[in-house]
Amino acid sequence: MDALRKTQNPDGGWSYFPNKKISWLEPTLYAALALHGDPAADRAWELLRTWQQDDGSWRPSAEVEIAHSSTALCVTMAAIRGEFDAPFRNGVDFLLGSVGVEHSFWKRTFARWHWYDPERNLDLEGWPWKPGTSSWVEPTAHALVALKKAAAKATQLASLTQRVKLGEALLLDVRCIDGGWNYGNRTDGRNNLLPSYPETTALALVGLQGRTDIGASLDLALKYIRDGASPMAAAWLNIALRLHGKSVDAPTDTDPSQDILITALEALGAPEGNHRLLATGAHA
Amino acid sequence: MKFTRREFIPLAGAGLLAGYAAYDSKTRLPRHITGRAAVAVVKAASYTDDLASRIREGIRECGLDVRGQKVLLKPNLVEFDPNTCINTNVAVIAAAYDVFKSMGAEEVTIGEGPGHRRDTHALAEMARYRSELTKFDDNFVDLNRDDVSSVMGFADRKEIYLPNTALRADLVVSLAKMKTHHWAGATLSMKNFFGLVPGSVYGWPKNELHNVDGGIPQSIMELNRIFRRSFAIVDGIVGMEGNGPIHGTPKAAGVLVMGSDLPSVDATCCRLMGIDPTKVEYLGMAADRLGVIDEARIDQRGENLKGLRTDFQLIKDFQQLRLA
Lengths: 284, 324
Prior knowledge:
The complex is a heterodimer.
Chain A: H1 2-7, H2 25-34, H3 39-49, H4 71-80, H5 86-97, H6 105-112, H7 137-150, H8 157-173, H9 198-207, H10 215-226, H11 231-243, H12 260-269
Helix pairs in contact in A: 2-3, 2-12, 4-5, 4-7, 7-8, 7-9, 9-10, 9-11, 10-11, 11-12
Chain B: H1 5-22, E1 37-43, H2 51-62, E2 70-75, H3 90-102, E3 107-112, H4 120-126, H5 129-132, H6 136-139, E4 140-142, E5 148-154, E6 157-163, H7 164-167, E7 171-181, E8 185-187, H8 199-202, H9 208-211, H10 215-226, E9 230-241, E10 249-259, H11 262-273, H12 281-286, E11 298-302
């Protein structure tokens, strides 16, 4: 925690690495979650609130003027903090209106006419990294957490529930043959099967909290940890497995990473860490 | 000379058509390059050879001077599979690092932003970059999570955000791998610039580059238009054939290919791989806009191309690329 406090930028945000200058939403959000309740976290959230755009989306940093999938992280944070005002509602509306381009009418029609094989079910609806691109695992997982968190206060509950259902189905549709997930392709576009990665397997599991049909995926996540995952993957796997109620050995004490995102994720995934703030499932 | 209106209209139409052919609005660049380019091909049978000497020889043949420059080495680190050879071999990176340092570069940084995995350091560990490159953690920048600046104009997009480490470099060295590519035909030094695009903005994968008007070829063009101060060193000691760039099989070509004109380096690599560069869409677009692909205008340095050609296996969809 001290390592996080020491690396906070003067604007209240965090960079990805201590030697960088620009604050980014992702490390800022995870550091703020790890430090939830601390004044440093409040300063971070004050900064992030200023990054919301007119369409309800959040930009990924002050320097980057695009609508970004990390909007989901801010909706989650707003819900965690119990702030259900206009920024929260606009963020939820943005997420409900955001869908991958593979779901377009024409792509679905061409796939239905067998003009091409998309190697995934285009009737499902996931989330893209940025508008105008396809749905992928990580933004879909984050959006699922955000919408599940938002459900209690959402005004469009029916469409929210439907998007959660279709988003979960999309994650299951793109699950790799080994039971885990990579960035979001089960095959390479030429029907060759692709393997999963540890970090994206963990992220998908965070999005799929509450499901009871993913035992093989949880077993794979445990195997990834046992086999010695990288620091980033181990941090995400710890968070995911704890959110699914699985006991994970506490990580051995190591020097703080020079990677601020990893430091924040490790703090979140520690036994006493704030990973519970991301809970949406049976263990919430 | 005077034209009647009846004479003027067809002449103006022909002029417009000729202008359109020379300046295709999609590529934003006129075909203005009329000169020649130098490409060095040096033999290297194995990664245990003295690669530093080979690279120094190639750079010298191309007349590159890096004294006082900030150099970014951009390897191709995509995924890891112990059964094949997806990435630029660590021995090539280590040798290039030493050579650029010894040639008087003010600063040599290694940077990459893998397209599929955000866990760059895990990939670097698996590819043995962390264990075998001196002071890797001090010299390496994860371009996916670097600070960024916007550059105006990118295909049909208003702007693109790119990593400051790359934008501030005096020279970006594309340390590419010689591979076939199941969408683009071949991936060499020009396509390697996809790894300069930050995942923190565009995600994993960098789907934006596929979705701009003109798709992958146009994105390759645009990145190479932006990063003009560049040099290429293509690792063809062992390349990849078949279903590249990830699921292909190793193919020994026994060469390093170098030059400052990236289209001419890639065109030469294609000829070595038995691929007709004029049929690779992005190279056709780059011809005379970004560089030279015409064999007659490439000054071959080092080894003679004849006798070095080794046909890389092509997937069914790309059989038409085979060089006669």
